[in-house]
Structures are given as structure tokens and as C-alpha cells.
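S1.2 Input.
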Amino acid sequence: MNRQNIILVASAAIATALAMLAVPAIGQLANQAPTAAVSGPAPDPAPQDRVVPESAAAVQQSYAPIVKRTAPAVVNVYSSVNITRSNCPYASDPMWAFLYCGNNTQTRSEKVDNSLGSGVIVGADGVIVTNLHVVEQGQEFRVALADRREFPAELVMKDSKTDLAVLRIDTKGESLPTLDFADTRGLAVGDLVLAIGNPFGVGQTVTSGIVSAIARTDVGISDFSSFIQTDASINPGNSGGALVDMQGRLVGVNTLIFSRGGGSNGVGFAIPSEMVKRVVDAAVHGGSLVRPWLGAKGTTIDSTKAAALGLDRPRGVLIAAVYAGGPADKAGLKEGDVVLTVDGREVFDDRGMKFIAATKAEGETATLSVLRNGKPREISVRMAAPPGASKAEVVQVSGQNPFTGAVVAELSPALAEELGLDAFNGGMWVYSVPPRTIARNVGFQPGDIIREINGATIRTKADFEGAVRKAEANPPATWRLATERNGQRIESELRGR
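S1.3 Output.
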């Protein structure tokens, strides 16, 4: 599905009630066998504490008590930006502005509300979580509670990898209603959920539905994605709002929908509460989020691979690479292993495995259920941060070589994770290419990755410096370079001495 079909949505808070749910009596179908197979993970055994309504009285039960308890913890989030407007229509061009407007040009500053979304109060002292895309372009923020009081808000933390942001308001010592985090490991497809938000700005609205799927990793809007899918109506105005379970706990933060026309088609997605909690905890305790790293990457197992590996169905992740000295390597994970579960949860692709690891804190242990040569075993991996600097430690290249003037950094696993690049190949990342430099004349661009110099593989800063020194000491007739740009390998030859 094209990216334009992904509509990011925004949500809010006022006060409301919920109409009663009308559910057809389907109890008589509960024991019938399914008529067709479906793809995806094997269904979990039917939980014994869930029941299908079997009478008119059961169908007419109300969600009102849950709504009354949870709705006050959902808020409206407004972001605004200050812009400068001019009375001269040619203000963007100084020459035309002078010719046509002269000294009569006047400017004025305006505050423009450019985003409306929702947030969820997760700290009684005023800590609120929302979507990053709700506040990303804003300079000032306001929060409106369900009782219509408004507070200025401070942006404490934003995390583009998960599309989450944390705000704080000053409650002057007042304790606010909050939502507790649910443990989504017990969440099952078919569980009832409520979505609370402000669709189209009509006011706080509650919609009901079920969990349609869990661990959706192929939606593709964030690097650490394992979304909860629901058919509860989510529309523009719902982003940052709450998805709650029947105990009134926060299951997830509503984030996006799939839609061709902008309205709800019953395919909405929420960020699971365990990831939300990690971001909130980091914001509350210092504002720095360190994402643990497995140090392993894998490939999806299709039916052909499953048969070759002796699996009963396509499941698990086939480990394709293990980073030397990383957490997985130290724990004994090897290439060719099949990871079936992480902390008891099935995984089906590299994103799912990466997501569960990212919900851990540094130093915590993840338990991997693994098949090696057809034999099961468990491996405990102590989570650690990826090695290297997460922020680019840049240096400007000097000397007489094709890279002179370029600002580069070693593509360490930490930096690669930050940039969303492959953390296993290394290389030198081109941070910038100033004008009037040899590197600019050669054609290097920011974002390029230097892979080879005169046949030498470049993985680290030491590799790069060694290859350049060697070539400068004995200048070659031709520099042979291999770089990567937007995932494409580019090989070139440049005249040397």
C-alpha cells in the first residue's frame, strides 16, 4: 500500500458518553470449525476468561463505567507556531519588494495553531504522552483537560523512532486522573477495546471495537513498529489518544489509519503500551532514551525456508548475521539459528524481534527460544546499547585526496541505528560536503557511505585513515572508490597523480 494511503490522525479530550453496543447473537457459532485457512501466526488458544454474549441482556450491557473512569485522562493537545507576515506580496524577493513596496513594507507576527491532537495523562503530576507528529512543527503547546481547563505545556522529549512525544504541564500540586499501562503480552485478537479521541474536532468521542491483529510490523511509519490493529473507529483528530481495554488500562496510543479517502475504514493502529512506557520513563528520568540492541539481524521465514528448516509452518526469524562482540554474540547466538520467541512472544520478522528488544531497559535480559540444527534451546541475552557514538563524531578530511574537505563520521552501530541504516557493514558516513572543496568537485553528497578505497574495505575510521594515508604516500594513477547512495552501490575511478 502506498504511503499516501497512510493517514496520520489526531485525537483529543472534552467530556462525553457512549452509545450502547449492538452485537449480533453469535454464541451458536462458537463451536463451528473455520471454513478456510488464513495466513499469519497460529491463533492462540481461546482464553477461558473471555465469554461471547449469549442473551439480549448480555448484549445490552454498557461501557459507560469504563468511559467514566478513563475519559478524564485523555486531553486535547494544541501546538502553535509564530510566523511573520508582510503586507508586501513580493516580500520573499528583496529586489521586487524594494521596487514595488519600497519603504512601505510592514511586517507583523502572528501565532497560528497548526495542529490539534490528543494526549494521555500518564503521570498525576502532569506528564502527558502524545504522538510526535501532533507537536513536531509546533513552538508553543497548550493542553485542554476534559473539564475544559487549559494549561501551557512544555515539550520534555520527542522520539522520531516511535512517533512519540512527552509533554508536561504545571498542575500547581493538583493530582490529575491517569491511565495505567496494560501488559499487552496478555492481549489477544478479539479482545474488546475502546478508542477515545476527538475525530474531526467534534468533541471527545468514544468508539468501540476489537483487537483485529497484534504485532503488525509491516506498516512502515516508524523504525520500532509492532502495532496493535483495531477496527474501533479512528479518524483525523484521534492521534495521541487512548486505546483502552475493559479494565480501563492503556493498551496503546492511537497513531494512524489506512484509508483512501481520509475516513475510518476500520483499519487503525496503536503503539503498544510497553513501548509508550519506555519512552515516558526515559522522559521522566532524565530525558534520554537508550535503546538496547540485540546485535543480530534476521530474515523472514517463508514456506520454502520453513520446509528446509523442518518447521511445521512459516514462523520465527532466521539469523543472518551476528555482530562480533555484541549482546547476541556474547550470549552465544549464531548465524543459522532460528529465533522462535523473544520473552515468550512469537516473532516473524526482524522488526518484531527488534521491537521487543527495544522495550527492554539497558542491562535487562531477554530470553530467546531458539532452534539450532533442529534442536530447541534457550539463550539469555543481556541487553546493551549499540557500540559507538549515537551522535556523529565528525571530522573534516584534509590532505590531497578525493575526500578533501568532506566532513565524515564512522558509521558505528549506534550512529547507524540513529540514522536507520544497516548497523553491520560499517563504513564512513559523509555528514556534509562544503562548497569549493575537492570532495564537492568529485561529486560526493551528504548521506553517502564510503565502502571501499582502492580495493580496501572500509568499516571503521581507522580503515579509512589507513587507506587514505597509503594512497597519499604512494599516489595511484587512479583512485578506485566504492560508495553507497540511497542503498545503491556506486563504483568510480578518479584520475590520481
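S1.4 Remarks. The domain at 3-22+62-67+179-283 is CATH 2.40.10.10 (Thrombin, subunit H).
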